[in-house]
Hints:
This protein is mostly beta strands.
Amino acid sequence: MTDVAALVDPSLVTIVDGELALVGSACGTCATVTFPNQTSCPRCTGADVAPHALPRDGTLWAFTVQRFAPKAPYVASGAAFVPYAVGYVNLGDEVLVESRLVTDDLASLRIGQAVRLVVEAIPADEGEAITTFAFTPVRGDER
């Protein structure tokens, strides 16, 4: 289990059955699901929303590869840049979540591919690391 307090924004996650899950909100009036958690519904503007744990598994809906270093403060000073993928993940046909994608083989990413929620530590200045959520491809034998 991951220490939720160590994440860059602990309000984005919850623990369900001992596993980390993203927490969004679900509207009791129109059933719209959002991420992150909101206090009102963006579709019907109602206030009948409640926290809603999102599925840990999803499918890759769209992605791109970041091949140049982003501006500070997103990369630790002096750290070697390594290209990485970002994309939208469809979680249970409820909501699309934008996220980093963690893989050693960027060329293997495919639309519709099964992915699973993970925690990623990103190097930051002064030897620190920023811990956040990400998704990683699921191998066939892990489903």
